[in-house]
Amino acid sequence: MYYAQLRAFHAVAVHGGFSKAAESLGLTQPTLSDQVKKLERDFDVALFNRVRKRSTLTETGRRLFEITGSMLDMELQAIDLLSETAALRDGQLTIAADAPFHVLRVIGEFRRQFPGVSVALNIGNSEAIMAQLLEFRADIGVLASVPEDPRLKVMTLRDDPLVAVVPTGHPWARAGAVDFGELQGQDVILRERGSTTRRLIEDEFQRRAMTPATLIEIEGRESVGEAVAAGIGIGFVSEPEFGHDNRLAMVRLKGCELGMRESMVCLDARHATRTVAAFWDVAAM
């Protein structure tokens, strides 16, 4: 049987490389590489084009990726069948979200209706959320940047503007709003690559041919807030993500229409499972 090798192949295809794929499966990179090589050797096929540290699918690999996706989905459906009752008295739902507050209301209502179903919530950026969905490590994703993919079922949860975040002692704190052009030459703090907030801000800077004085990359929304409070630079969040911190002030951005559309997604093939369908219905209320 080739289950372990096929799962290893699927993880590499999702992550585009062996290092991240090995980490996601809790394997060493040599072990994962051996599993993929076994498939290629036993069937005398090439599944990946290996160029430097990036691995892209060959035509055979692309076709196999579609099959392994279905294979892993069938495994989860079998687990659902064995672990859940028709009344949803038990079971488990795993949600990957870019921020907790977008989905906490839905989780609360879902738990009131189905108290026997346990819910796990993982926080990460949009790129990590999509990887969890495609690897079947998450049932539902909540994120701002949803790729065009016929395998996904999507529901819009909310639309919110992006705002700047400054220390309360900053001159912009009293103004409450500034033109985006005033960010020219400012020290700017951005999230890690894979963050939708970062992509939107960088695209707007590029569109206007603007450059910050310095660009500081910090991983995680909370860490960005701490860096802003320390006076390192200006951060950015969607308006409801600002929260309550008396060290920080929210500044609206004029002269641009930068918004975050928060969506809930699942693999279309997974939507029929009892827990996912029930959560989807609660979110739609």
Question: What do you see in this structure?
Answer:
- With 285 residues, the protein is an alpha/beta fold.
- The protein contains ten helices and twelve strands.
- It is 42% helix and 25% strand.
- Strands 3, 4, 5, 6, 7, 10, 11 and 12 form an eight-stranded mixed sheet that branches. The chain has a two-stranded antiparallel ribbon with strand order 1-2. A two-stranded parallel sheet has the order 8-9.
- Helix 1 crosses helix 2 and helix 5 packs across helix 10 (274-284).
- The relative contact order is 0.15.
- The mean pLDDT is 89.
Question: What is the topological layout?
Answer:
Blueprint: H1 3-15, H2 18-25, H3 29-43, E1 48-51, E2 54-57, H4 59-83, E3 92-97, H5 101-113, E4 118-123, H6 126-134, E5 140-143, E6 152-167, H7 171-175, E7 177-179, E8 187-190, H8 196-207, E9 214-217, H9 221-229, E10 235-238, E11 248-254, E12 259-267, H10 274-284
Parallel strand pairs: 3-4, 3-5, 7-11, 8-9
Antiparallel strand pairs: 1-2, 5-12, 6-10, 6-11, 6-12
